[in-house]
Design brief:
Blueprint: H1 2-30, H2 37-47, H3 52-64, H4 68-81, H5 86-98, H6 102-115, H7 120-132, H8 136-149, H9 154-175
Helix pairs in contact: 1-2, 2-3, 3-4, 3-5, 4-5, 5-6, 5-7, 6-7, 7-8, 8-9
């Protein structure tokens, strides 16, 4: 009996150390330290290539570090395996948006909304994609809807002000043409 228990314990050590490493990495990120984060997640992923959480976190870390193309590759690889993974769809959409690939971001956010129409993070990402791409009217409509759901969200309130200014500016340009 002791041999079986010891064998089971020894077999689980890599998994336990991987879980401990993952938890340690998450606490570093939560504290704002992203230095080397992508590399450490890559090491976790190298140890277990089928680890979905490690792949998602690796892709997120790449995005945080401005390595958008590499992040997109990781999210896309995961979506090949799990086409309905909402976290991967959303992460891919944000990485497109942060890399100023607004058409791709919009398409990916809309695909994520098809899977989860009430998802605040996805709705918000789409609204900010509209805003960043200069589509103030569409952003304003989306942001006002979000503000009804989250009236105390200061970032949405500020984005509404930016979108309203963009709508006014666009209207003034059209009047002078």
């Amino acid at each position: 009996m002791r041999t079986i228990c010891l064998t089971a314990l020894l077999a689980s050590l890599p998994l336990l150390s991987g879980c401990a490493s993952h938890a340690l990495e998450e606490s570093s990120v939560a504290a704002g330290d992203i230095t080397g984060t992508a590399e450490r997640y890559r090491q976790l992923l190298d140890a277990d290539p089928r680890n979905v959480k490690a792949r998602l976190d690796y892709a997120s870390a790449l995005s945080w570090q401005g390595q958008y193309r590499a992040a997109q590759e990781q999210y896309s690889a995961l979506l090949t395996q799990q086409p309905d993974n909402l976290e991967a769809m959303t992460g891919l959409a944000y990485s497109y948006a942060w890399n100023d690939q607004y058409a791709l971001a919009e398409r990916q956010f809309k695909q994520a909304l098809d899977s989860s129409p009430d998802n605040f993070g996805v709705q918000r990402g789409l609204a900010f994609t509209y805003l960043r791409s200069g589509r103030s009217s569409e952003a304003l409509e989306q942001l006002k809807s979000l503000q009804q759901q989250h009236p105390d969200d200061l970032e949405i309130t500020a984005a509404i002000e930016t979108a309203e200014a963009g709508v006014i500016e666009g209207s003034l340009k059209r009047d002078h043409e």
